[in-house]
Amino acid sequence: xxxxxxxxxxxxxxxxxxxxxxxxxxTLPSATGTLVTVSGAIGTPTSGVLTNCTGLPATTGISGALxxxxxxxxxxxxxTSSTSLVxxxxxxxxxxxxxxxxxxxxxxxxxxxxxxxxxxxxxxxxGSLQMGAYGKxxxxxxxxxxxxxxxxxxxxxxxxASHTVKTQWLVGGGTGTIAGGANVPYLxxxxxxx
Length: 194
Prior knowledge:
Elements: E1 3-8, E2 12-16, H1 18-23, E3 33-38, E4 68-73, E5 78-80, E6 86-97, E7 102-112, E8 118-125, E9 128-129, E10 136-139, E11 147-154, E12 161-171, E13 176-178, E14 186-192
Antiparallel strand pairs: 1-2, 1-3, 4-14, 5-13, 6-12, 7-11, 7-13, 7-14, 8-9, 8-10, 8-12
């Protein structure tokens, strides 16, 4: 059990046992004095610096907001005939992160004008592909019919710096189209996470 020590310029020092503290009235001297508790939890402080505490909230150590970016493309369709990865039009986000990972997502309707060919989409962070050499693949089963093409991924922890996150794509032949109109836009987003 702990003890309470009263120290003041006019009264010296008095030690109370826990029983005394519960049953007695404690009066501090009128001059400058200090009430010091030895051991025990302190309850919920209203301010201070926590250096040796457990059960802290998930936001501990974060100052400011986490980086986020979102691009919704409604200005027109994106097309490519490239058989190697190229940037998807208007699907690039540049932001500054802490030393944390980033989650990203892509939502679109897409098609290839030739049956049984693939449309592949990947994400590059500072030029480094996140989903292998190619990425997520969609096979065109019906000519010129839009298919939903959605995915979510997560990077490893990035360095604390400015980063460029891009959606890239290729087709196995023919021409690929991603709908980008006002009624059927495509969406690319990225969010720094803990």
